[in-house]
Amino acid sequence: MVPAHAMLSDTIHPYLAVARSHDSNLFRLDDGAVIGQRGDDLTRTQFGILVDMPISRQRLTAQIKRSKVKFSHYKQLDYDGKDYAADLEWHVGNHVEGHVGGTYAQTLTSFNDFHSAERNLRVQRREYVDGAWRFHPSYRVRAAASRNKSTYDLPVQQYNNRTEDQVDVGFDYLPPSGSRFGLQASRIEGKYPNHRALGGMLVDDSYTQHELKANVYWLFSATSQFQMLAGWAERKHPVFAERDTSGLNGRATMNWSMLRKLKMSASAWREFAAVESNLINNSVNKGASFNTTWDVTSKVAATAMVRREKRDFSTLEGRLAAPNLSDKTRIASLGLTWAPTLTSQLSVNAFHEVRSGNASTNYRANGAAVSASIQF
Question: Among 81, 136, 158, 313, which residue's CB has the most CB atoms within a 10 Å radius?
Answer without folding.
Answer: 313
